[in-house]
Amino acid sequence: MTAINPIEEAGTLNSQLAALDLAGRLSLIAGLGGHAVFTTSLGIEDQVITAEIGNHRLPIEVATLQTGRLFPETLKLIDETENQYDIRISRYEPEQADIDAYAEKYGLNGFYESVEARHACCGVRKLKPLARALSGATIWVTGLRRGQSANRADTPFAEYDPERNLIKVNPLADWDIDVIRAYVADNGVPVNPLHQRGYPSIGCEPCTRAIKPGEPERAGRWWWENDEKRECGLHVHEEAAAAQ
Q1: Where, by residue number, is the active site (predicted)?
Q2: Domains in the chain, please, with CATH?
Q3: Active-site residue numbers?
Q4: Which residues are annotated as a binding site for [4Fe-4S] cluster?
Q5: Which of 58, 157, 171, 216 is the most buried (most CB within 10 A)?
Q6: Which residues contact 167 (CB under 8 A, 6 or more apart)?
């Protein structure tokens, strides 16, 4: 997809996507040309997007960041999803040299000790693999939703990502969790069993806990930190990540 003004292009795409249902949104994205990559964490909303891509055989690459610290249930779900939809989910793993360097500086589980150490771990296990996953991509598809947290309340359907020089598309931006669950139930979508155990948002095993009644969906992520806007860095610009 060639963009004369990528910011204006993203704005136009945002308006177009708002008027479509999910199938229409993904079909529009797939028809834009270029290379579209959907990065999935295998969470319930991501499984909805994967189901649409697989069922409609859309030319959108499905990729996941296999951080080396995922729950066994998540790893099993990768294989189950591939088999159900007859697709290939590309795995992007951290470099062992980066893991070793992190462990030498902070300790293997040093992310519990400081926000700096936690961001460094996310950088090694998520951000650097993400850069490889999106290398050559012109469109990045995500499962971000406005209802996931206050930090994501203004999530658009499409925006220009200047750091990665691509269009970032969030086709489920306006879906709430009840609509997600209804889609899963109606369409037999495989989901992580941890969702039924109080884990609405699932990341790396050491950094995720079940939430308590009344807590926001992402309260279980990096639960030992106090910042309500905590993120791993995948979906915030460098300036915002530095401020956190």
Answers
A1: 232
A2: 6-240 (3.40.50.620)
A3: 232
A4: 121-122, 204, 207
A5: 171
A6: 1, 3, 6, 9, 10, 13, 138, 139, 140, 158, 159, 160, 161
